[in-house]
Write a structure and sequence with these properties.
Rossmann fold, alpha/beta, binds S-adenosylmethionine, 8-stranded mixed sheet, 13 strands, globular, 3-stranded antiparallel sheet, about 325 residues, single chain
Length: about 325
């Protein structure tokens, strides 16, 4: 499936008269501070707009995360997506693999409707076939026995717009082997991630990514000026450029995330958590570590290592015995 096809399909089926322009402006305004504004989407046109203008950027982020952990996602056969919206996670994942079962636990029937239309149009002939289902409800009201056992549960950009979202987390993940949380790459998104992380560690989950410091330490937890986030450059489609009045053919999406497993995890290397500072003769950056977190690699000390490390960007893994990042 090519994403541009999906954008064209949504545009010509739901938005061609462009009467929702005002709604789009309201939606963007609401997403600037989702916790304080009404982001509830209850109209198919608006749900289609969301998928083109926000869902596509989020898909780019999800694809980036999956591509870094292909071996982890390889083992995933069943997914429960809390607040899955138009099925953003499913469509991103389908670029890599088809799972056996995907369940969207979503309060907006407009989103569920759009997801079903898109699944029929773009995934129905994919093999192996994914059984796609939805539970139309407020997920905070679910009990563990209402949630099917799953390999992975997902919270993608949902905590940021759901009051008390973290309250029920421990019981919502009860039947999951892994949890993926993605939030906007803002101080508030990071704060949600840190709180979720505490709850999941308490529940016995281990961190797959992005944290690489030992014993649950977080070097950015109490930093007044920085927070753990990454940046992905996302290409814009023609329809997106049109809807967003955008001139550029790309945009940058900042995000924070957390991938955890019920089972013990072995990590190799340390995550680069700042934008590397490059000079002709050195590169320096911060890593996610419990000690000596500022690394400087100079050309003079180790030419080969410098050659490799100078290509690193925020989010890559750095290894002492650096042979590749
Ligand atoms: C910003 S959208 C994200 C949608 C999708 N996960 C994505 O990444 O594109 C937030 C979604 O969470 C849903 N949501 C928020 N709180 C919810 C709740 N308590 N129960 C069910 N759905 C919820 C909203 O309806 C919306 O679809």
């Amino acid at each position: 499936m090519v994403q541009y096809d999906m954008d064209d399909f949504l545009y010509s089926n739901y938005l061609v008269d462009y009467s929702k322009k005002r709604n789009l402006e309201d939606l963007f305004c609401a997403y600037q501070s989702p916790a304080q504004r009404n982001t509830y989407i209850n109209d198919p046109g608006l749900a289609a707009l969301y998928m083109i203008t926000r869902g596509r950027s989020i898909m780019g982020v999800i694809e980036k995360i999956i591509s870094q952990y292909l071996d982890v996602f390889d083992d995933v056969g069943s997914v429960v997506d809390f607040g899955g919206g138009p099925g953003t996670f499913l469509f991103a994942l389908s670029k890599f693999k088809m799972v056996n079962s995907y369940i969207n636990v979503e309060r907006s029937d407009a989103f569920i409707g759009i997801m079903n239309v898109l699944v029929e149009e773009f995934l129905s002939s994919s093999t192996p076939h994914t059984h796609v289902d939805s539970i139309s409800c407020n997920y905070l009201k679910l009990e563990p026995q209402d949630i099917p056992t799953n390999d992975l549960c997902v919270f993608s950009y949902t905590f940021c717009e759901c009051d008390n979202s973290l309250v029920g987390l421990a019981s919502l993940v009860e039947n999951s082997n892994m949890v993926l949380i993605i939030e906007p790459g803002t101080p508030s998104g990071f704060n949600n991630i840190i709180q979720a992380r505490d709850k999941l560690i308490e529940k016995g989950f281990s961190i797959i990514a992005p944290c690489t410091a030992s014993n649950g330490f977080c070097p950015l937890r109490n930093s007044g000026s920085d927070w753990c986030h990454f940046v992905e450059r996302i290409d814009r489609s023609r329809v997106q450029r049109h809807l967003k009045n955008g001139v550029l053919g790309y945009e940058y999406e900042k995000y924070s995330y957390l991938l955890m497993s019920k089972y013990p995890v072995h990590t190799v290397g340390k995550r680069i958590i700042s934008r590397p500072n490059y000079t002709k003769h050195s590169v320096s950056f911060d890593i996610c570590s419990e000690k000596s977190s500022h690394i400087i690699v100079t050309k003079r000390e180790n030419k080969d290592k410098f050659k490799i490390v100078k290509k690193s960007i925020r989010g890559d893994l750095y290894r002492e015995d650096q042979s590749k990042t």
